[in-house]
Structure formats: structure tokens, C-alpha cells
Amino acid sequence: MPDLKTTETTKTIAILGAGTMGNGIAHVCARSGFNVILYDLQQPFLDRGLATIEKNLAREVTKNKLTQQQADEARARITPTLDREALGSCSFAIEAATEKFAIKSEIFRDLDRILPAGAILATNTSSISITKLAAVTKRPEQVIGMHFFNPVPVMQLVEVIRGLATSQATFDAVHALSLQLGKTPVEVNDAAGFISNRVLMPLINEAIYSVMEGVATAEAVDQVFVLGMAHPMGPLTLADFIGLDVCADIMRVLADGLGSPKYNPCPLLVRMVDAGWLGRKSGRGFYTYP
Ligand code: CAA
After folding, report:
1. What is the set of domains in the chain, with CATH numbers?
2. Residue 217: pLDDT above 50?
3. Which of 104, 214, 251, 285 is at a distance of 20 to 30 A from 143, taking alpha carbons?
4. Residues 6+ away with beta carbon under 8 Å from 249
5. Ligand 1, atom 53: closest residue by C-alpha
6. Is residue 5 classed exposed, middle or buried when 0-12, 13-18 and 19+ CB atoms within 10 A define those classes?
7. Helix or strand run (H / E) with residue 202
8. Which ligand 1 atom is nearest residue 24's CA?
9. CB distance 25 to 1 below 8 Å
């Protein structure tokens, strides 16, 4: 493992969470020339995340988007760690942990203690209040939302979310970083689900109600959106892709934050999550995966 202390501070980004979003963000940061320290709680999580990055870099080489040398250099810029204290050399952090306030707030408190005073703390939350997360730190003006989309190496958008206290300098830095990562930043204010999930998740939830009530099969619902609305994948395929647990968690955040029962997760969604049918990552959701 390279000596983390020798890594150039201003070019090093801490990424917390090596899951679907975290490994995608690490991939994009490394591909854009940044050093990355990728943190997770357990070695198997890091191993799985790094294996995914290697597979996706290889896919980009096959598609002639990267040379083999560029892919090798990107991979070499990523240093995995199980030690949060190792993030002390980073000037920027992007948290991509589980979508639960208790987990994220514990991480933010720790990042506030470990990272240098000037460092920006960004969260890839898809729905949790930036203002509330910022309030657990002593640097709320340097806390911001940086919401990427799956698959991160492919999707162009970054929703940039200002908390109540986020400074203009922090916003400008994140706007510039998003462009350096080859993404298009879109500014959104801090309300539950921001724009993306406030609109997408009720669509997915309603698609699940349609299946639960026997209006149509999952395949038929998806065909309606692929063939009728030119969506690249139907809402139930997309739900499996995002993770049914993530979809249910986001619906609960919408219900709490926007104060309406219309955002409660569909009972079929809740039952599928209870059964461990989480979509693509567990091998079964609305469809089955080998
Ligand atoms: N890394 C790198 N490249 C990848 C990739 C990955 N993980 N996954 C796919 N690609 C590339 C492929 O190599 C391919 O490249 P070319 O166009 O150069 O051939 C391209 O992406 C398209 O992939 P495929 O041909 O394999 O498959 P596809 O045409 O079916 O596209 C898809 C796959 C891009 C995922 C497409 O189905 C799609 O856009 N789906 C919708 C995705 C979406 O809505 N994402 C947002 C989810 S919501 C979210 O993330 C936020 C939230 O808060 C929940």
C-alpha cells in the first residue's frame, strides 16, 4: 500500500463507501486525475468495490474511451483503507454511505474532526437534508450535497445541493470539481429528495402499486415506459438497478420531509425488501439475475 502521508494534499479526495455509488465516484475521480483514498468498514466491501472499478475501467478500454495505460494509472491513484484517520491528508471528502441519517451524521462528525479545517465535506445523499447533516459539524458552510447518478462513469448529471449555511465559495468549488470530473452540475435547493428523487421515486412507487394491484405485469409496466416514453429502462428495471432497499428508504425520507402519506413506500416494495429481494445486487427483485 502506498504511504498515504506522501500523497499530494490538494489533489486527494476521500470517498467513504465502496458500494455502487462510492466505487463509481472513485472511478470518475481517479479517471480525472485525482488521487483517491477509498474508505469502507470491511475489507470485503473494499475488495468488491475495487473489483467493480477494475471491471468498469476495462470496459472503457474495450470501448476505446481510455487507453490501457490511462486505466492502469487511474487504478493506481486509488488507495483503499479501513482506517478513517488515513483521510486526514484529504482536502475534499465525498460521503457515499448507506442512506440513513444516523450513519451519515456519525461519519460527518468524524470527518469534521479528521479532515483539515479548509476541507469541503460533500455527501452523495439522494434525499437527506444537507442542512441537518451540516449542523452536526463545526463547518456547516463547507458542507454540500453532490448527488451522482448510477452508473456514475456514464451518467452526466451531478445535482449540487446547497444547505442553508453552505457558502458561495463551497458551492463554486463543487461546481468546478463537477466540471473537472466531466459532469454537468445542476443547482438544487435543499428539500427532501431534491428534484431527481422527488419526481423519480413516486413514479417507481406507483409502478409497484400497478403490479401489486394486478393492473399489469412488471414486464408490461416497463414496456410502457421504454416503448411509450423512450426511457432507457422501465421503472421496475430501474428500481432493481438502484436497489429496492434504497428506493424504500428514499420514499420514507420523502414521506417524512414532505409530510404527506402519498410518499409512503408501497406495501409490495416493503415486503420485497423484508424478503431480502433487493434487486440486481441480491439476484432477485422484480426480475431475477444470474
Ligand atoms: N462503467 C462504465 N461504463 C459503463 C457502465 C459502467 N458502470 N455501465 C454502462 N457503461 C457504458 C457501456 O460501456 C456503454 O458504452 P457505449 O455507449 O460507449 O457503448 C454505455 O454505458 C451503455 O451501456 P450498455 O450498452 O451496456 O447498456 P445500455 O445501452 O442498456 O445502457 C445504462 C445502460 C447506461 C445503465 C442505461 O440503461 C441507462 O441509462 N439506464 C437508466 C439509468 C438511470 O436512470 N440512472 C439513474 C438512477 S437514479 C440514481 O442513480 C440516483 C438515486 O438517487 C437513486
Report:
1. 4-189 (3.40.50.720), 197-280 (1.10.1040.10)
2. yes
3. 251
4. 99, 100, 127
5. 126
6. exposed
7. helix 196-212
8. 7
9. no
| Contact of 186 with 160, CB cutoff 8 Å | yes
Respond yes or no: is residue 159 known to be catalytic: yes
Cα dihedral: 80, 83, 85, 89 (round 10): -10
For the chain, the farthest-separated pair of C-alpha atoms sits apart, in whole angstroms, at 60
- List CB contacts of 9: < 8 A, sequence separation 6 or more: 89, 90, 91, 116
Smallest CA-to-CA distance from 97 within 127, 124, 73 is with 124
Compute, in angstroms, the gap from residue 151 CA to the centroid of ligand 1: 5
In DSSP terms, 80 is beta-bridged to 38
Question: Does residue 95 surpass a pLDDT of 90?
Answer: yes
pLDDT of the residue at 11:
81
The identity of residue 171, as a single letter, is F
- In Å, how far from its chain's centre is CA 179? 17
Task: Please say whether the beta carbons of 154 and 182 come within 8 A.
Answer: no
| Entry pTM | 0.92
Q: At 185, is the secondary structure helix, strand, or coil?
A: strand
DSSP-assigned beta bridge partners for residue 279 = 284
* Helix or strand run (H / E) with residue 254: helix 244-258
| Candidate list 60, 127, 159, 205, residue with the active-site label | 159
Number of H helices, E strands in the chain: 11, 8
Is 199 touching ligand 1 by the criterion CB < 6 Å? no
- The CB of 56 under 6 Å from ligand 1? The reply is yes
Give the rounded percent of residues in the chain with a pLDDT score beyond 70.
Answer: 97
Nearest CA to ligand 1 atom 17: 63
ipTM of the complex: 0.92
